[in-house]
Structure formats: structure tokens, C-alpha cells
Design brief:
This protein is globular. The protein has 2 domains: 161 residues, 3-Layer(aba) Sandwich (D-Maltodextrin-Binding Protein, domain 2); 115 residues, 3-Layer(aba) Sandwich (D-Maltodextrin-Binding Protein, domain 2), CATH 3.40.190.10. Strands 1, 2, 3, 4, 5, 6, 7, 8, 9 and 10 form a 10-stranded mixed β-sheet that branches. With 321 residues, it is of the alpha/beta class. The chain contains 11 helices and 10 strands. 46% of the residues are buried. Keywords: Receptor, Signal.
């Protein structure tokens, strides 16, 4: 167990299971949710729906600030530096947990300088190929790629999807080149154009291209198929029995935010994710609401970090890779 594991274990003692959330009035001043990614993406969409609902529940303004760059590190740094008074949060995806594994230096300690509030939701990723490629199934893609090793590329939108793609090609023994993109939108644009053979990304980013027929979905990375993508099987259903990976959307606060405030915000988020407007935003991404308790969420962060650490080692990726 490395130092990051010990830091997170130590932080869990700050949230004993006996703690009960106390009433807290958030209406004194606006709440800011920093989204450390570009506007218009899946995280941004969820954040804006969530903020609208929280504003109604809390009777205050909830402001979304997009501070993109460096795999989310720039925006998250701003939250680390914010006053820990319960009015500033970061809404991030799994890349937040991956960053310590793949950045040699960071301006903050992922586990020591932030407190997990809750996982808002989780969603499977989708694997898509250009319609012009002429394949419609996973088996057809495998056969095509194996006929021409090194000819085809898979694209990813950030560190987490890069690792998912790398695991996919390694397990199937495919010789493919990775092409990193700055976001899901440019990735899907290139897949639709046939510039990149395989795209690994969010369902929201791929949805318009799937609907228009420009890309073909060949697999989902979750545990089950979904009605929104009829006929699209999971990787598990197609023989990759242990392949179950989700993009998660989670809320974090500065580390010294008082426990009762963190607990109170978790309960407000739980109410919000089951409101109709937020549920619709989640459903658009085949996302499942979670809103787990603070203590459970912080424990699961340790498990997720360990799994991603193991994955990175298994595919031979190191810091900066």
C-alpha cells in the first residue's frame, strides 16, 4: 500500500460513521461549482442541471465556473485554494483519481487537500467506429485490425478513457495507435470523419453522431445493455468477462470544510439527482444516479484508486505516459 493509500485511509477517520448531518443554511451566499473541463461536455451538462436544482432547494445562486486544462488540475487547484466554508466545490470525473498516477508533479495532494462529498452518478463509456469503416460489430473490428497491425488508431478524450482504450486493445491483442484528444467533441468529430478508427468516450459526446448515423456503436463498457442504445451489447456480453468500467461524476470540497456542511451538501445532492430535470440529464448519458453517503464515497475512492493503479501497471503506463 503506497503513501496515497495511507493518506486516504487517514482522511476517512475525519468522517466517523456515527456523524449525522446537521442542519446548515446555504442561503447566506452563492455556491460555486467548478467544472475543470470545457463547456458543453457531459460533466458540464450534469453540473448545470444539478446547479439549477440545488439553487431551488437551497434558495441561493449556484454558479458554474469552467476552468479547463491539464486534465482538470487547473480548475481543481482553484477549489483546493478556496475558503473551506461549504460554498465552493469541484465536480470531476475519474480523471481526478487517475491524475496522481500519471502526473509526476501536481500542485495539490488529491486525497489530502480535498474531501469527497459524493459520487453524483456513473455511466458506461461507448466504443464507436466510423460508418465508413464498414464494420458494425466488435468481432468485425477485431478481424479488420488484426489483418493490418499498426494501421488503425483509437482515440481517447482524457487520461481515464485513454486507459480504458489501452486495456481494451491489450486484452484483445490489437496493434493500434493511441491518439489523445482534448475532449469528447473533437474525438467524435474525427471518428465520424474516419480520421480515427475507434473512439472511446462518453455516450453524451457520441449521441449526436450515433443518431445521425455517422458513427456506429459497437460496445458499452458497463455491466448491462441500455434501451437508449438498442442492440448494443456490453464488452462483458461479448466475451470480455472482467471488463466493467464506468465514468463517474463526483463532487469534492476543500479538505477543511466542516463535516456537518459536507454531510448536509451530500443530502441536498441526493435530493437533487432524483429531481426530474437532473434525472433527464443523467438519462441522456445512460448515467445512473448514485449520491452515496460521505463515508461510503470516501472508502470507495480508495478502492477505485487501487483498481486504476493496478490497471495502469498492467498496461505498462507510468507518470507522463
Amino acid at each position: 500500500m503506497n503513501k496515497l493509500h495511507y493518506r486516504l485511509l487517514a482522511s476517512l477517520w475525519l468522517f466517523p460513521f456515527a456523524v449525522t448531518a446537521q442542519a446548515y443554511d446555504f442561503s447566506g451566499k452563492p455556491i460555486t461549482i467548478v467544472v475543470p473541463y470545457n463547456p458543453g461536455g457531459g460533466t458540464d451538462t450534469i453540473a448545470r442541471r444539478l446547479s439549477n436544482q440545488l439553487a431551488k432547494q437551497l434558495n441561493t445562486n449556484v454558479i458554474i465556473e469552467n476552468k479547463a486544462g491539464a486534465d482538470g488540475i487547473i480548475g481543481t487547484s482553484a477549489v483546493v485554494r478556496a475558503k473551506p466554508d461549504g460554498h465552493t466545490y469541484a465536480l470531476v470525473v475519474n480523471t481526478h483519481i487517475v491524475n496522481p498516477l500519471f502526473h509526476k508533479t501536481m500542485p495539490y495532494d488529491t486525497f489530502k487537500d480535498l474531501t469527497g462529498v459524493t459520487m453524483i452518478a456513473k455511466s458506461p463509456l461507448v466504443l464507436v467506429v466510423p460508418k465508413s469503416l464498414g464494420v458494425t460489430t466488435l468481432d468485425e473490428l477485431i478481424k479488420l485490425v488484426k489483418k493490418a497491425p499498426g494501421k488503425y488508431a483509437y482515440g481517447s478524450s482524457e487520461n481515464f478513457t485513454k486507459r480504458v482504450g489501452a486495456r481494451f486493445v491489450k486484452e484483445l491483442e490489437l496493434d493500434m495507435i493511441n491518439v489523445p484528444y482534448s475532449g469528447g467533441a473533437p474525438l467524435m468529430t474525427d471518428v465520424a470523419a474516419g480520421t480515427t478508427t475507434l473512439g472511446v468516450g462518453s455516450i453524451l459526446a457520441a449521441h449526436a453522431y450515433i443518431s445521425s448515423g455517422k458513427v456506429v456503436p459497437i460496445a458499452l463498457t458497463g455491466d448491462k445493455a441500455d434501451d437508449s442504445l438498442p442492440g448494443v451489447k456490453t464488452l462483458k456480453d461479448q466475451g470480455m468477462n472482467h471488463f466493467s468500467m464506468y465514468v463517474t461524476y463526483s463532487l469534492f470540497a476543500p479538505a477543511k470544510t466542516p463535516k456537518p456542511i459536507v454531510q448536509a451538501m451530500q443530502q441536498e445532492v441526493r435530493k437533487a439527482v432524483f429531481a426530474q430535470s437532473v434525472k433527464q440529464a443523467l438519462q441522456a448519458q445512460v448515467a445512473e444516479p448514485v449520491a452515496n453517503p460521505v463515508e461510503q464515497f470516501n472508502k470507495e475512492l480508495l478502492s477505485e484508486y487501487a483498481q486504476l493503479d493496478q490497471l495502469a501497471k498492467s498496461i505498462g503506463m507510468k507518470a507522463g505516459g
